[in-house]
Automatic annotation (TrEMBL):
SUPFAM superfamilies: NAD(P)-binding Rossmann-fold domains (SSF51735). Residues 4-260 form the NAD-dependent epimerase/dehydratase domain. Keywords: Oxidoreductase. It comes from the Eukaryota. Belongs to the NAD(P)-dependent epimerase/dehydratase family. Dihydroflavonol-4-reductase subfamily. It comes from Ascobolus immersus RN42. One of its GO terms (molecular function) is oxidoreductase activity, acting on the CH-OH group of donors, NAD or NADP as acceptor. This is NAD(P)-binding protein. Pfam families: Epimerase (PF01370). The keyword Oxidoreductase applies.
Amino acid sequence: MTRILLTGASGFIAAHILEILLKNGHKVRFTVRTEEKAQALLSAYPEYASNVDYVLVPDIAVPGAFDEAVKSDPPFEAIIHTASPFHFRVTDIQKQLLEPAIIGTTSVLKAAKAYAPTVKRVVITSSFAAIVDRAIGNDPSKTYSEADWNPITEEQAQENASEGYRASKTFAEKAAWKFVEEEKPNFDVATINPPLVYGPIKKETSTLKQINTSNERILDLIQGKYKDGIAQTAVFLWVDVRNVAQAHVEAAVRPDAGGKRFFLVAGKFSNQEVVDIIAKHYPEYKDVLPKERQENDGFPKDGVYSADNSRSRQVLGIEYISLEDSIKDTVASLKVLGA
């Protein structure tokens, strides 16, 4: 049993992390922005009431935002930091994407060093966005791994919200590794770098109007918004949220996970494959799904890049959920929410 701090607990991935932590017997303090979110999470796990508490952190971009959260008796042994913005509805890339990601990450690390000397591991949610190189395109000769870094510049980060998001994850992760190298705290760091994340949504943290960006695409499909044709796939790598959550927990407790990045990838996918899975398992949506089939099952004719997920399998013991099961379970969760 370990005492763990989980930041941003109402997020899509973090809500699954919280469930795993509690069911595995860990004592958890979580942070959320509002009392309403805190109570929604607590009400989902009444049987673990004695093992969970929370601290409100309304704005992660405020320096010192996590100072009070990391002070604990009994003390923490690990921190899982997931709090970071992921949406494209922004008007100010610097203030809405870059600063919350970078300042939020460094604030957690500074607070842990200053006020939580018992912490031995900090796990940070990063992204494939911190790995991918847009200049490579879909080059099928490329196999991405933890060795790769997105070479995005500060200037490119200001081009649009998509580039701003990729930059926010890249700069925040680099800031974390730099902090450990320069400050030499009592803890080490591990990062989890997933691409597009599908999988079931926790009803206690989401509504149909507030779901994660990747699952929003599936909701739009079953609501008929792509009836005239779905967009071409932009990112061809995916993973299920339950595997991502499991990876965070394993990275927090496995000694040999420290000092490593983990590229969490179940495999390749296309939007056309997602349509096909929905059509197979949910015939009631037949009339609202795209009628026209994409060429080559939605993949580029000349092929597409690959990913090396061997580290996640070997070090964290991840066994990946299939795309079919992930999409099937995602739609089932959306139906529970009223889709």
